[in-house]
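task queued by scheduler; priority normal; single chain, no ligands, no partner chains; default sampling; output format set to structure tokens
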Amino acid sequence: MDAPVAPLPAAGLSPGGPARLAGRSAAGLIAKSDHVRAVVVDSAAGVAE
């Protein structure tokens, strides 16, 4: 189900804007998963002690 692509001149987005935003979101998700992994490792280390 493809959403219609509407031009966004009011938002001042260049054609690269949505791609840049998606890249930023992906980077944020990766950083978040790394943080979760670090918390899990810290918790496991705490349980092991």
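post-processing summary
- The chain has one helix and no strands.
- The chain has a mean pLDDT of 69.
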